[in-house]
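Predict the holo structure. Ligand: zinc ion.
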Amino acid sequence: MSLLGHVHQLSEVIGPRGSTTEGEAKASDYVQRQLSALGLRPERQLVLSATSAYAPFILASGASLLGLLLFWQPQPVGAAAACIIGVTAFASTLLELTFTSNPLRWVIPTGWGNNVSAVVPAAMQDAKRPPVLITAHLDTHRTPLLFSSPGWRRIFRTIMPAGLAGMAALNVLFGAGIFSNDQALRQIALIPGTVVAVIFLLMLQAAASPFTNGANDNASGVAVTLALVERLTRQPLQHRDVIVVFTACEEVGAYGADTFMSAHRRNLRGAIHLVIDHVGGLRGRDFGPSIIRSERFLRRVECDPRLVQIAESVARAQPELRATVRDFDLAYSELSVGAKHGLRSLGIIGLTPEGDLPNWHVRDDVIANINEATLERTVEFAWCLLRAIDVEEMG
Ligand SMILES: [Zn+2]
């Protein structure tokens, strides 16, 4: 099957693949059949996941607003209750943003997804080094207003700091309200309260918007990874097993990658982790893959410096692949999860020369907007990178 053939099957024939939905399950079945056809023995792993990326933030901002309501009730009992609720919501949000279990996850709706993985063993089994893990997610995101235009995307970038600042300001005022009955405190609280209320409404809208077809995000990465597996079955690495995982439930907080890495902690000690996500480019624009040196969501996560060096030298040796090295500041990817598990992570993500993600979480994320040349360059680049990693000792 060609690269675009896989993208067609996933994004058109199966279509939207929301986390924990029927569509995602069909995508898991699809990659499982593809791996079996290559003579591998794919394994499925159940993933318990949130069903919505936005539910935790609806709950947290809603709790903060409930705090504001209590703050306007007779004091100091109202302020004390507001403070407890507000601080719990704030702390839970910080944990949620670093993919860590927290009270919000105890109450939001959950469902099941399926990771599908396979191993292509190293040619030389006796002098083996830690494996290479490749992850590419199967699921697709929704189409929130916040992603719908460059203007809205600018607002999206301010949402997280604004929301955290609004919740923190409310908590300070709630705390002060326990000791003071000053009416001015209640009135000032309406300002951060308004910010939190706007975010609450935007999160509700996001949670109700339809899913994308996900041709670029991430049928492209799945297609590239399947092409790499096909090559590896004919020509495995010498020193490292390559484990590929087609992950479920990335778009709601990277649950699939986290579940896999938790379950395979021992095998993955010292492993190299490549994330292949959103690599379909943009029809009409001719660029290559981006090597992600670091990514910033709540905090900056650095990729493995030695891996970045190797990737840079591959890019220099093959300028026709148009690979560039960049920092990624828009969102999280699975590389944050790899780094959390102590893996040596590196991301391959197809940013435009301006540093944008083409057709990100919008209805236009369809196969007609994919650039086949970018897909092919990404396969070639990733293949050369795997070969280059194979000849390195890397400690
Ligand atoms: Zn993605």
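The chain has two domains: 3-51+111-143+211-391, 55-106+146-208. The pocket of zinc ion is lined by residues 137, 217-218, 277-278 (CB under 6 Å).
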